[in-house]
Amino acid sequence: MTDVLRRGRASLAFSFLVQGVAFALLVTRIPGIQNRYGVSDGMLPVFLAAVPILAGIGSVSTERLVRRVPPSRVLRWSQPVVLLALLAVGAGRQMVVLALALAAFGLAVGALDASMNMLGVSLQRAYGRSIMLSFHAAYSLGGIVGASLAWVGAHYGLALWVSYLPVVLVLLPAALVGSRWYVDGEAQAPVEKGAVAGGGLKWLLPLCLVMTVAYIGDSTVSNWSAKYLQDVLGSSEQMATVPYNVYMVTTLLGRTVGDMGVRRFGAVAVVRAGALVAAGGFAVVASAPGAWMGMLGFTLLGLGLCVLVPQTFAAAGRRADETGRAGASDAAVARLNVFNYVGFLIGSPLVGALGDAWSYRGAMLVPMVLVLVTLVHARSFAPGADRYGGGHERPRTADVGRSSNGL
């Protein structure tokens, strides 16, 4: 294993961590953002839906962009935009400022997520074993840091910009320095127009569905856990910031050991177990008599949902590689990443609409049923194509080795 690959893995993990911090600081302070800008409960779903729509546009644009420039360059410049947009959300006071800042955040996040996972898939190919969960574990660690900082801000009544400014001042230059060691795959010709890895999107559809369901669950926690604990289970605003933190802690734990689970038991078993645990978590949240039982439900959700997204990206990259078409892996990851935002787009308004029309407890049962759909499509993660989970053929490290330093 070369030093180039080790540095590339470390620098990419740091980018995942930075993104976890930024996203957690945004979503865990939604009540504070509402109060600062005077966003009504009726308007809140509109703002929450706009971000994933624009992120989807950013991801689709990245698929085209990486045909001309390496993913490392897209990641290098999209991450600072995300951080600056977060700061703008905290510093503004007029609704138009919030709209513009969230628009920039959404577009940049789409490019960032797609390029990060492209680099992660290509590094896993080079390592010859499952490491994708480790990158998403770094994201979870960042989420814990961000949620903790949000708790401090809410506890001491700090203005949003006061909470955000030190984070941006530290992480932005650090991310730019770390970007010198990103590692791209070998330069490849673009995929033929209208065909991703041969046969169009047909082979990718089960993975797209799993990605959508996983992010419906994740967005439910991200966007509604604080409001659910405060409005339904009667907690304080300070305590309402805790569920997302608990969720991220258990997500971190699950992802830290998840790669070992994939190597030992295979991706199919890990994905099935994750779906069952996540469904149990939603059941506990929906029936919780108080805040502490709700915490237990969010704990289970973190342990269950944590494996689904990284394994879905890994499976897409594997399947694309097996077709032998140049550039297919990046294209597949970019298109799969769109369904990340489809899940967010469906999940946030769905829970809000069901909560208003029915009850928020009942609304939690819908993602519980949806996540069980993963069981039907678990075979899409099966060995046979699972070289990295089953320990069979190891790809050559030469497949990935071009550092982004000096691009």
TrEMBL record:
Pfam family, one: MFS_1
Major facilitator superfamily (MFS) profile domain boundaries: 204-407
Region (Disordered): 387-407
Primary localisation category: membrane
Subcellular location: Cell membrane
Transmembrane segments: 12-30, 42-62, 97-119, 131-152, 158-183, 195-216, 265-286, 292-317, 338-354
Residue ranges, compositional bias (Basic and acidic residues): 389-399
Keyword Membrane: yes
UniProt keyword terms in alphabetical order: Membrane, Transmembrane, Transmembrane helix
SUPFAM superfamilies cross-referenced by the UniProt entry: MFS general substrate transporter
Topology within the bilayer: Multi-pass membrane protein
Protein name: MFS family arabinose efflux permease
Organism of origin: Streptomyces thermodiastaticus
